[in-house]
Known about the structure:
mainly alpha; 2 domains; 10 helices; 69% helix; globular
Amino acid sequence: xxxxxxxxxxxxxxxxxxxxxxxxxxxxxxxxxxxxxxxxxxxxxxxxxxxxxxxxxxxxxxxxxxxxxxxxxxxxxxxxxxxxxxxxxxxxxxxxxxxxxxxxxxxxxxxxxxxxxxxxxxxxxxxxxxxxxxxxxxxxxxxxxxxxxxxxxxxxxxxxxxxxxxxxxxxxxxxxxxxxxxxxxxxxxxxxxxxxxxxxxxxxxxxxxxxxxxxxxxxxxxxxxxxxxxxxxxxxxxxxxxxxxxxxxxxxxxxxxxxxxxxxxxxxxxxxxxxxxxxx
Length: 280
């Protein structure tokens, strides 16, 4: 009989392979189309500007790539605000929350070394903080472990906890992001979940459009939403993982009652064996 731990490992690997195949199916064709279009645009650019050769164009493209990797948006001009201003920098929060958008990273050796030690102590501190915050959010409902073990009115309370959190942290924020950032609601919802789940792809990041003027209240509200949303979704994921483990355990460790009854009947039907006294 396969243990539930082995089943969990196999399911995890299967889920990774499934995701890889689906993403390849959905995204590879689009990537190929954009790559071909980019190569065509480079050829047109060289034809229109004959004073440039391919090597010069490739060098300029490399400069653009290095600027983007180092957090400099190639659009706009030099008046764009710095990513490392104290009022603008939220990189520290993305480090300790393990979101890691990838659109900004330290480029100096000193900054990289500090980032390692900052994350080394900051990540456990952040986990402890979010754990206490999550307990506070569910304190007036019931502990989630009791809900898993004792179904009853706590299920209604957890449903309220889940519904309220979904509205506050997943449904309503994309409306704000769509209005401020100019995204569609789908893009805003994608950014919302990717952020709160600490996936942090980095393709959508708030307050990075150089053509927009962001007020400090917007950044502050985004930071507050981020902290409470992380705590809420962590609690939801914790319950989901607990339920999945219990489901696998019940499914694969369900006792075979027929074998147990048969064994008991066999013992009852067998005549009692005479005891043999062995003299000492």
